[in-house]
Amino acid sequence: MSTPALDVRDVRLEFGGLVALAGASFSVAPGELHGIIGPNGAGKTTMFDVITGVYRPSKGSVRLDGVEITSWSPHRRTRAGLSRSFQTVGLAPGLTARDNVLATVEAIEKVKAVVSRPATARRRKAAVDELLAFFGLEDVADTQVTDLPLGTTKLLEVAKVFAGDPKVVLLDEPFAGLTASEAKPRVELIAKRRDQTGAGVVIVEHDVPLLLEACDRLTVLDYGTVVAQGEPHQVMASAEVRAAYMGEVVEEAV
Amino acid sequence: MFEPTILISVVATAMVYILASFGLVVTYRVAGVFNLAFGYQAAFAAYLYWQFSSNSAGAFGLNPIVAAVLVVFVCSPLIGLLLQQVLFRKRQEVLSAIIITLGLGVFTTGLIEKIWPSDQILRTVNSVFGTGFWRVGSASITQNEVGVTISAAVIALGVYLLFNRSRIGMRMRAVVDDPELSGATGIPYVRMSAAAWMISSTLAGASGVLLAPALNLDVVLLSGLVVAAFAVAAFAGLASMPLVILGAFVLAYAQQAILTKHPIPGLDTGSADLTPFLLLALVLLVHPAAQRTVRVVGGGMRRSLRERASGNVSTALALVVVLTVVGLLLNPSWAFTGQQVAAYAIAALSLVLLVGASGQISLGQVAFMGITAVLMGHLTAEGVPWGVALLIGLLASAVAGFVLSLAAFRLRGLFLALISYAFAYASLFVLFRNQDVISFAGLSVERPSFLGIDLGNDRNFLVFAMVVLALCIVLVGALLRGPWGRALQTLSAGDSVASVSGIPVRVWKMAVFTVSAALAGLAGGISATSNITITGDSFLPGASIALLAFAVVGGITTPVGAVVAGLIAQAGTPVMNLFFADAGAWNLILFGIMAMDTTLRYPAGLGGMLPSKLPGIDRVVRLFRGRPPAPAAEAP
Questions:
Q1: Which residue segment(s) compose the domain that B484 sits in?
Q2: Nearest to B308 among A78, A114, A144 (CB)
Q3: A241: distance to nearest CA of chain B, Å?
Q4: Which CATH architecture has domain A1-81+165-254?
Q5: pLDDT tens, position by position, B145-167
Q6: Chain A contact for B629 (CB, 8 A cutoff)
Q7: In whole angstroms, what is the distance from residue B544 CA to residue B424 CA?
């Protein structure tokens, strides 16, 4: 088997006495769309925080494309090809849509100059505009983020996460607040972009049916541990998952 | 240990600090406003008390106790309610609240000066508790100190019970814990914040009336109360009651010790005023609770501005040209005003980068100006050429800015603001008021001839200063439009967003503080050279706050806003003097209102009202740039 794009091994994290992650593992192949589900407080966002370096795990390791990155700083991980969106809006309010994405591209390219060479600046702008157009955001490229409706900012975040051709993309509830019919085209766009770039994509989401359709594999987290992993429909069929994730439903069935 | 005379004075001071810190914390925690004007409110109450109780002409001559009760329990709560209704009906962001309360402080100063002009009669305040004293052995204990101690203790106990035992106290604490949740459970934020302001104002009034006999209606001393109160509050992590009491005693004792026993060598008695800042700095840097409370006010303060930091320079450059021409046409005394406008605008530009773009904050910017100015004075006296001295001064300011940025790694919002303010105070006592650095006679910075131009001529120096300003505008404009601007604005969205966007947060914070400090240093160099002589009081910490306020009023997100800030700050008084005989107090009142009003209603500042683009100038700029070259080989 080829090297996974992202490999999380036995990650453990405690806050005081509270165990947020109790030795969870999962891996994402290049080009794989991987869903993570679980009840509130299961450790989904905390898992993202450990992968991106917001928290250091007390045990376990995180590898990006075979490289151990457990002790790296967040921005170094981003520059190495690991990018992430937030549940809350993670954009600079004072910048336009294009400049938000451009800021990431420049950060990844470690730009230090006050003024870029015109040719370089044009190349970057073209790349960003292509990305914005891919996600249907070309019309709002010059609009300041504070003037965008919330749904559009969520989509802009997804686009921003794909800036600079990352190896792994982590999306934290990218469809929150959208109806199923609004979310579906966005999943398709993400899948298509994944096909183009070969990036591994991890999506945390509450909308289970949506992930069942779109994902190659599914991981179910509960109490900071992985309770099931594998092909989405098989995972959802397992009794353990039904108990953990939809306890009430199981009780009714019994 | 101290003798009883001093001991009771320490206790009395500590009790007032406790009152004041309660008052400050109430609005901070319930209404989310750090009230910089708290001390001014206390000063206003002290003057009101004089008005009611004094037997001098024009005063009412009431019984002191009746007067005190009227001021503290009737007037003060009403003032608090009025302030809340006019200024704080909505929750304000950190920076907005700082500017609004600062404007309020300036306004109050002006109002006091207008109603009770300081030059007419000498006002003395009668203590509420009479002038008698008791003898204890060889020492004497005044009735005033005993009265202050007891009444402050009673009021403090009352507030404590109000918060912990009453229904309204309960509900206020719910707002503190979670404003949104408590709103959802039907506790109205507006009513709670009104209650908080009334309590806070009452405590400010009580502090003012109790302190007035000791501080003799000195507005500056009374206004400094806010720092002591906050040092004590921060020491207690803004929460613990026993720690508030301990902190108040530690502070009062330390001040007394420095005053009477161990004055810091080489510094004047003002070093006792530095004690609250030292305590505050210490607490902020090591106290984990103080760090935690950052989250209460955290968040990017740029959100309050909601405006794009724009790198548009054409309007700014046009304004500079107009100002230069006007300055040259008027009589030569206006050339000096023009130089000051240019210097101030450069200082405001340093805040456009730091605050407007990157969402950091500094209330110590004037200290950077002073560092450059002091170095230039000494170096030029040693025969170092003016330009070289300026360069060395800039570097020194940049280094100081770099050091301050280290604090910005850990602190945000209000706490960063306060630590930078503490830095300004420390510089004042260690550098600017140090006789070895600036003598009583002042320090002079000679105007040189530079590149063959005689800058001793006011008009020549005006043109020179304006050219420097124009270059700075172009530089800051380029920074804001390019990769730096994007990185800094991403930084303003918060540390975690920035770092996940691939931006090394520490590097950029260091960069922006360093560059901003260097710009402020440049402003200081120009200003000092324009003034020719600088004194120890040229760089008062209050000037840093004023700079920030002017920058916000002018428009902190754009270069043109910085030029407007320089214009109103430096040309405002001379222009007003043309129309009014006594512009001073009116000036303060007017600017106070302007600062509050702009923050509440025009977040883009006055500069935001000017057209952002001048098409004609843009066309000329494009003409000079020529056509963009054909796509070339990839840059390395």
A1: 312-620
A2: A144
A3: 32
A4: 3-Layer(aba) Sandwich (3.40)
A5: 888 899 999 998 888 888 878 88
A6: yes
A7: 8
